[in-house]
Amino acid sequence: MSNNNFLVIIFLALIVGVGVFYIKSQTSQNLDRTLNTVSNSMPVIDESTNPSSVDEMIAINNNAVNFNVEGGSFYFKPNEIKVKLGQTVKIEFTSKSGLHDFVLDEFNIKTKVLSSGKSEIVEFTADKLGQFEFYCSVPGHRQSGMIGKLIVEE
Predict the structure, then answer these.
(1) Residue 5 phi, psi (nearest 5)
(2) How does pLDDT run across 21-37, given as a tens digit for each residue?
(3) Which residue would you say has higher pLDDT here, 53 or 133?
(4) Residue 76 near residue 98 (C-beta atoms within 8 A)
(5) Distance CA 41, CA 81 (A)
(6) Taking CA atoms, which of 17, 27, 31, 45 is between 20 and 30 Å from 77?
(7) Whether residue 64 sits in one domain with residue 31
(8) Burial level of 39, CB count in 10 A (0-12/13-18/19+)?
(9) Helices (H), the chain
(10) How many Å apart are CA 98 and CA 78, to the nearest integer?
(11) Can you say how many angstroms the Cα of residue 75 is from the centroid of all Cα atoms in its chain?
């Protein structure tokens, strides 16, 4: 093999090596940019806060919300929940004292009747505009004022 052929092979090997290095570095940079974009667009949820009102709900993303609702002697806390049309609504209902349930007829939601300290989670899509009453279906509780209001807005 002549020196010219040897130099051509060395030159081609260098070009291939530089090309492979360049492609790997570009792929790595694109992956880093993608991971940063995904990481920066994810919501941060501060779990140290305990929501005590509608305004303190925990937003998971633009289309889902969580609420903690407690039921006690003829009350719901909070007794008003506001959501946007189309949102996925997740409610963790806890009976604080006595036997209670959480019923929202228009969205076909009903927990079991729960004893003190017990919880149940219900989930639905707020696909109707308006104001809807939720209540406890234990006999006499609704009539004694154990009601609340779900407001679905645009």
Answers:
(1) -65, -40
(2) 666 666 556 555 655 55
(3) 133
(4) no
(5) 27
(6) 45
(7) no
(8) exposed
(9) 3-41
(10) 18
(11) 26
Q: Which domain holds residue 36?
A: 1-42
- Could you tell me how many residues make up the chain? 154
Per-residue pLDDT tens for 95-118?
999 999 999 999 999 999 999 999
Say which residue the tokens 């959501």 belong to.
83
Domain co-membership, 6 together with 71: no
* Residue in this structure with the two tokens 């667009």, named with its chain if needed: 41
Number of domains in the chain: 2
126 burial level (CB within 10 Å; 0-12, 13-18, 19+): buried
Residue 68: closest CA among 83, 57, 80: 57
Q: Are 76 and 147 contacting, i.e. CB atoms less than 8 angstroms apart?
A: yes
